[in-house]
Structure prediction request, 352 residues.
Amino acid sequence: MNTKDCVKKIWAECFDDTPQWIEMFFSEAYRDEDAVTLSHEGQIVSALMLQQYAMDFHGSIIPTGYICGAATLPQYRKKGYMTGLLGDTLHQSHKRGDVICALIPADEALFRFYQNSGFSPAFYINLERYSSAHVFYPAKEYIQRADIDTDEAYTLFNNLMMERPCCIQHDRTQWHQIIADNSVDGGIPIFLADAYGNGCAIAFTVPTDEDSVRVTDLLARDADARLGTLAAVREIYGNIPIEVYGYFDAPAGIDSPRGSLRIIDAYRLLRLLAEPYPGLKAAIKVHDSVITPNNHTYIIERGSVLINDGFRGTLDYDIDIEVLASIVFGNDVTARLLGFPATRPFISLMLD
Prediction:
């Protein structure tokens, strides 16, 4: 059995995804070079995918790993295989040049499990909930466009995504995968245009088992186009509750944990952070038990970063890699309290 078939077998046995969704993933998104596996007595018993994405970060685009499908066959669990596999994966991520690595835990308990490997629960969404009685009243009229798998729709999507600081981005191939994922889940994408035919909003919707609809992301040029999109959701699905996995500018949401982030290359991350903030000064000693090349003292000053392990001055921070992530990718409160250019990251429309 080849690697793809082994990974697919583990996926089918360990997750409750439908056969149709599994076929979609392994035909549209799977690549042998992304598969990381662990074997016992010649059999692959634990596997995950380390996919390649990118994130905009303080004016730069940084290579980003994304872990999905992490699973161990039931009879081989509680033997430390997944912890070992995660370690191998993080080393591979570092070797191929990723600056950070992201994942979306399947349940709340797994946030704590991944923290043991240096992941910080940094990704949040602004969760909005609307009852079945809620009505949306946009001021303008909008037209629903029929086809979303087009260069025009992707250009609008990409432009709106790039307006979000510190956001996981999707290339044209991944855009096609998002559409395939939405379709196999029984969802309906929404592409709105204004009265002049100009694209102005995009959303992906999926019906849930609770007789409601989930909007897995909503991007709009302005607040009225956003209202128009929610009105379109109401028109399509009728009077059922709506749940929106919104960005941080959502008007009526509650911050909810969504995913975890791990720093893979501390030097490159801090250098890219320092460049646009020449007034930032900090001495940071970092401890990383998995990716040992991160174990240094970093001096940030005048827009640059110097590694100085012989530093004898006062450290501003003496922290492990997980805490560093919680500082760099903190919220506005973190930024104000620490005087650090923290920016909360955002993740959406992954194949989870």
About this structure: The two ends are 25 Å apart (CA to CA). The chain has a mean pLDDT of 95. The first strand starts at residue 35 and ends at 40.
